[in-house]
Amino acid sequence: MKILLIEDDREAASYLIQALDEAGHVTHHASDGETGYAMASGMDYDVLIIDRMLPRRDGISIIESLRAEDNKTPVLILSALGEVEDRVTDLRSGGDDYLTKPYAFSELLARIEVLARRLNPAEAATNYQVGDLTLDRLSRLVMRGEEKILLQPREYRLLEYLMKYSGQVVTRTMLLENVWDYHFDPQTNVIDVHMSRLRAKIDRGQKSQLLQTIRGAGYMIRE
């Protein structure tokens, strides 16, 4: 998923960004309300995580403005305020879920995954399969037949994206934007290197080769 975190506590934000990255997500960060609002209204995200108390513009104001613009991106509100009245007010402002600080990352992760599935049914799939290759998004377990395949975080994210669009051509630009979070061409062979490593892990020694290079277009994974 592509996530926007609007949080002014830099230590908390740094921890959360690292944890979300390790969970296979791409996270953008804004440290104040005005910047966060501009990013939320100007780019597409799967989920917004918004702190209630922010400098320059508070989280509730951001949510109300986004909803007034018919922006339906799911919002998880983070707040140190835990009273029932506070939660009710924030949810009625347009928030979709509410998590009180301090929180467990496992709970936050589960909540944003639920929010993303509500808006985009395609995200509801917890398992991808192409031929005898399977990927379990909950356990992050990848199997080729009876063999367990161990992947590095970036390799896992690359395979997950390819399997999500199995049977379709995935361009280099799509991979740069959605797997590496680059919105420019870094002029390196980073994709080729990772694709070569991934191909070696899932196809080497197998009767059928699933990962294919589509010359002049990109890559595809199919049976």
Please name the CATH architecture of the largest domain: 3-Layer(aba) Sandwich
**Helix and strand sequence:** EHEHEHEHEHEEEEHHHEE
The CATH topology of the largest domain is what?
Rossmann fold
Strand order of the largest sheet: 2-1-3-4-5
Q: Quick one: biggest sheet?
A: 5 strands, parallel
Count of structural domains: 2
Uncertain regions spanning at least 5 consecutive residues: none
H/I helix tally: 8
* Broad structural category: alpha/beta
Strand content: 15-25%
Helix content: 40-55%
The total of beta strands comes to 11
Q: Termini separation (Å)?
A: 25 Å
From the spread of the alpha carbons, the general shape counts as: elongated
Radius of gyration: 19 Å
CATH superfamily of the largest domain: Response regulator
CATH class of the largest domain: Alpha Beta
Mean pLDDT figure: 88
Question: What does this molecule look like?
Answer:
This protein is an alpha/beta fold and 223 residues long. The protein has 2 domains: 2-122, Rossmann fold (3-Layer(aba) Sandwich), CATH 3.40.50.2300; 127-221, Arc Repressor Mutant, subunit A (Orthogonal Bundle), CATH 1.10.10.10. 40% of the residues lie in helices and 21% in strands. It has 8 helices and 11 strands. The strands form 3 sheets. It has a 5-stranded parallel beta sheet, with helices on both faces. Strands 6-7-8-9 form a 4-stranded antiparallel beta sheet, covered by helices on one side. Strands 10-11 form a two-stranded antiparallel ribbon. The protein is elongated. The mean pLDDT is 88.
